[in-house]
Fold Dihydrofolate reductase.
Amino acid sequence: MTTVLPNVTLIAAVGRNGIIGDGLTMPWHISEDLKFFKRTTMGHPMVMGRRTFDSMGALPGRRSVVVTRQADWSAPGVEVAHSLPDALALVADDEQVFVVGGGEIYRQAMAYAARLLVTEVDQSPEGSVTFPPIDAADWAETAREERSGFAWVTYERRG
Ligand SMILES: NC(=O)c1ccc[n+]([C@@H]2O[C@H](COP(=O)([O-])OP(=O)(O)OC[C@H]3O[C@@H](n4cnc5c(N)ncnc54)[C@H](OP(=O)(O)O)[C@@H]3O)[C@@H](O)[C@H]2O)c1
């Protein structure tokens, strides 16, 4: 059984149709939300899938832990893990850790997360990569800030 880790937050921008990307890039460019992402994650470790790393690289001021199945994969300035539990173990001593995508990694990390920070984007873009469903039986919406074209929504795990 997966143990929920109180220090793990998923942060994602999600379309009305659940889409978060096309496998290469994000479907939108919302500078206000990128600033929110930066100020929220700054100083905290980020865990991401190798494909998301390929799309955004290592971001300054934050440890990047990249999850890959490739035994010989490396990139400057990042730590490598070969499973999600191994990635979360690397950052277990940090009081706040952000899982920053993409779809494959969100899907696996949701079971560990205590909190979700979801930017609900008021668009239904084309794409192939989705955020996993947020089951209201497991997650309570605890905050919502409406902006123009999107909303910042916080979910906390029930119980
Ligand atoms: N809207 C948002 O907030 C947001 C945020 C982040 C990303 N995105 C978008 O999401 C898309 C990328 O998502 P994605 O689902 O295609 O890929 P991803 O989750 O970023 O990365 C998938 C890769 O992670 C590695 N991986 C996954 N599970 C693993 C495991 N259990 N053990 C070891 N390695 C594992 C594999 O890397 P290897 O192939 O190297 O083995 C796999 O190919 C892009 O379009 C990106 O722009 C959107």
